[in-house]
Design goal:
- By secondary structure, the protein is mainly alpha-helical.
- It has seven helices and two strands.
- The protein has a single domain, classed as Orthogonal Bundle (Arc Repressor Mutant, subunit A), CATH 1.10.10.
- Helix 3 crosses helix 4.
- The longest helix is centred in the N-terminal third of the chain and has 23 residues.
- 17% of the residues are buried.
């Protein structure tokens, strides 16, 4: 089978194209990257979460998140406050500047989703998402992957970042937004 028609290639490339297009839109319209939009979307639903919890929800390394939060805090998008339950932790919150942007991010995401699904009927969209959710469920459970037990594949992906990137891409594709 040609590489450009394989399942893995198509899913990965669709996610890559979706993320690239989303980045273009959000940078030009809002001034935030797609990764920053994910942080905003996550914070909109988990206001006041600590940095470690936010990194876990986003499935990224805490140090990567800290750098993003540093930049976003400098630009006035988020603020950190001491966590009353843990002196070592900092809670992350949206600022007044960011709250109106949440709706615009969701709107841009919906527009891009419509663009991506152009030419598909509503029934086809539902079927596509349903099938992708089932495939995701099949792959999300380690027990569902007997091939990983073979020595040649046991090492997994080239790095943890590759696996995180693949999961993040799949979330973008399935969710179609920053959350």
């Amino acid at each position: 089978m040609p590489v450009d028609h394989s399942f893995a290639y198509l899913v990965n490339d669709v996610a890559r194209l979706f993320v690239a297009r989303f980045n273009e839109h959000t940078l030009s319209v809002i001034g935030l990257t797609g990764a920053q939009c994910q942080i905003v979307g996550c914070l909109a639903g988990h206001e006041g979460i600590n940095q470690a919890g936010l990194a876990e929800l986003l499935d990224i390394k805490p140090m990567t998140l800290v750098r993003q939060i540093d930049r976003m805090e400098e630009d006035g998008w988020v603020q950190r406050r001491p966590d009353p339950g843990d002196r070592r932790a900092r809670q992350v919150q949206l600022t007044d500047k960011t709250r109106p942007v949440v709706a615009r991010i969701r709107q841009l995401s919906s527009e891009l989703r419509r663009e991506a699904f152009a030419g598909l009927s509503e029934a086809e969209e539902r079927i596509l998402l349903s099938l992708l959710r089932r495939v995701h469920g099949n792959l999300a459970e380690p027990a569902a992957l007997p091939l990983l037990a073979t020595p040649s594949l046991a090492a997994g992906p080239a790095s943890r970042d590759d696996a995180r990137g693949a999961r993040a891409g799949a979330r973008w594709l399935a969710a179609g937004d920053c959350q």
